[in-house]
Amino acid sequence: MDYPLKILHLEDLVADAEIVERILRKAQFHFEKKVVSDEPEYIQALKEFKPDIILSDHSLPAFNSLEALRLARETGITAPFILITATVSEEFAVSVIKEGASDYILKDRLERLPNAIKSALDKYRTEKELARQADLQQKLITETSIQVQEREREEIGRELHDNINQILAATKLYLDTAIQTEATMELLLKSHENLSLAIEEIRQLSQSLVAPSLKGITLSQALSQLINNMPPSTSLELNLDTANYKEDIDDENLKLTCYRIVQVQVNNIIRHARAKKATIQLKRTPEQLEMIIQDDGVGFDTKKKTSGIGIRNIRNRVGFYNGTITILSAPGQGCTLTVTVPLLTSPR
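Above: the chain sequence. Below: its structure as tokens.
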């Protein structure tokens, strides 16, 4: 490192502290060392000196290394802790290691100290880096989840404003006109139709938001229910092919994710594809799950079209499980969405 290594040494014998310092200088350590001999000095040094590593004798007046280690951790100091002692039982050494000490060195074998310090620091830095990466990964997952939620809310807002709100606004206009004219029956019938349509739209929107309970049923059964609950207003013929799906997946969260992916894509087909037929195909091997959703709709140029909220939602869900997604489409040639998810690895 470019800056001096800050070493806090808890030792009540001046001669022993000097021996340790000579050994470290001989090993060409670049360091700044602070020696303390009792508990009050040690606590103050933990707060003010903020060591990179702690070396501790075992037996001090009214104080020992195990208490020193616990004090360091309670203070928030996670730096490596090495026990240096003249004599100690193997049981005690093991107990200190279990409490979080990095190593222990006998005073008659101090030649091991430089390597012990290097090893402890290397391990500590590696663990910190792994923890940092895990934290960044968790933040990324959280950020992705928030983005998905915001996009879904955007979509809900548009649905409410552009669809349901327009239906209800037209219904109000019909009723206002009916109140002021004699041609009430036709307007009331139109209002009734619009209200029925709005109710169905709200039912479909609610169904898409509330997570279904898939416990006790297979993914294929859940998708069959999804097909059976298709809105009556749609003319899409939707079929489920499970010939190559003989064994259900055990992970309930993955099962729900797969259900949501199919749900989102089917909604995309109904709203945008102008398709007459669509097929959901499930394939399962011991290593992976594959879902293929194909329609005969208007299609699009995959090189030019920007992915909408629905496709981004699918990509985020698939990415969480380290899966892959491919989209094959062309104008007038429908669309084939293929999702592949590995079954032998954990989500990232």
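Residues 113-180 form the longest helix (68 residues).
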